[in-house]
Amino acid sequence: MGAILSIIGGIAELVLTLYVLVLIARLVLEYIPLFNRSWRPKGAGLVAAELVYTVTDPPIRFFRRLVPPLRLGTIALDFGFMLTMLSVFILMAVVRALT
């Protein structure tokens, strides 16, 4: 029984680690237009960007509804991404503790 839980925990940790990498890819995709406004993904990059946004949008939107962006003059701090990343790290710690 312990071996099965260890395997399930390992798979869960792998999935969460891959999700962290996808979140980092989203962060990069969101910062590229700040430095090069004319950049648009094309071809395989467009497919990859669409996949990244499709996978990461639901939890980020959930946290944006839960904690609305904080307005500071002309800018707004969006906590959706940070809360999603924090949640994934907490889940990873829980999975490690249980296995």
Q: What would a concise description of this structure say?
A:
By secondary structure, this protein is mainly alpha-helical. Helix content is 77%, strand content 6%.
- What would you call the shape? flat
Cα Rg: 17 Å
The number of distinct β-strands equals 2
Uncertain runs:
none
Largest sheet: 2 strands, antiparallel
- Relative strand content: 5-15%
Number of domains: 1
Distance between the termini: 12 Å
Major sheet: order of its strands?
1-2
How many H/I helical runs? Answer: 3
**Helical/strand content category:** mainly alpha
Break the fold down into its secondary structure elements and pairings.
Blueprint: H1 2-35, H2 44-66, E1 70-72, E2 75-77, H3 80-98
Antiparallel strand pairs: 1-2
Helix pairs in contact: 1-2, 1-3, 2-3
Organism: Microbacterium commune
Protein name: YggT family protein
Transmembrane segments: 6-29, 70-95
Report on this structure:
- With 99 residues, the protein is mainly alpha-helical.
- It has one domain (2-98).
- Helix content is 77%, strand content 6%.
- It has three helices and two strands; from the N terminus they run ααββα.
- It has helices spanning 2-35, 44-66, 80-98, and strands spanning 70-72, 75-77.
- The protein has a two-stranded antiparallel ribbon.
- Helix 1 packs across helix 2 and helix 2 (44-66) packs across helix 3 (80-98).
- The longest helix is centred in the N-terminal third of the chain and has 34 residues, at 2-35.
- The radius of gyration is 17 Å and the shape is flat.
- The mean pLDDT is 92.
- The chain crosses the membrane at residues 6-29, 70-95.
- Pfam families: CCB3_YggT.
- Keywords: Membrane, Transmembrane, Transmembrane helix.
